[in-house]
């Protein structure tokens, strides 16, 4: 069994780095998620006893007094840190500029969704999962979609 300091790559692409004992996470260690987020924790027999999640942009999750995206302040974390852009220049996501979404697809937060195949791939276009009916409906209803129309200015004769 795994013992000592090490790393373990899970099938989802998440990597654990830290202390291992008798084949499980035990002691200080971090989970590094493919989306750039990190969960740093103290583990006991594979269960975190205390920890903190840090988003890819550096925002630390607080389970008490969480004010980010609370309905009153709808700015992205990068806007809170760097300020708002001038009027008329919208920031569509926390990532600025936002990812280019493949044509006909949606950005569902952890990757791109193709509604024709019902497949979700990560941002490096590797398979993540197939969407069930509920997830399909949620993505279609709420997520950003790639622009699928082109509008060209026609010159008048």
From TrEMBL:
It comes from the Eukaryota. Transmembrane segments: none annotated. GO terms for cellular component: motile cilium. The keyword Repeat applies. It is found in: Cell projection, Cilium, Flagellum. Keywords: Cell projection, Cilium, Flagellum, Repeat. InterPro entries: MORN, Morn5. PANTHER family: MORN REPEAT-CONTAINING PROTEIN 5. This is MORN repeat-containing protein 5. The gene is Morn5.
């Amino acid at each position: 069994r795994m013992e000592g300091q090490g790393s373990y790559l899970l099938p989802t692409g998440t990597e654990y780095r830290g202390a291992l004992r008798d084949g499980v996470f035990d002691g200080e260690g971090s989970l590094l998620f493919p989306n750039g987020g990190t969960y740093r924790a103290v583990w006991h027999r594979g269960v975190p006893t205390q920890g903190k999640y840090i988003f890819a942009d550096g925002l630390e999750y607080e389970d008490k007094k969480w004010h980010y995206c609370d309905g009153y302040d709808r700015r992205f974390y990068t806007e809170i840190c760097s300020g708002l852009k001038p009027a008329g220049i919208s920031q569509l996501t926390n990532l600025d500029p936002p990812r280019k979404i493949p044509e006909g697809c949606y950005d569902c937060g952890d990757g791109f969704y193709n509604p024709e195949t019902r497949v979700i791939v990560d941002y490096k276009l590797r398979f993540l999962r197939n969407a069930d009916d509920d997830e399909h409906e949620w993505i279609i209803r709420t997520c950003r979609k790639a622009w699928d129309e082109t509008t060209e200015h026609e010159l008048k004769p």
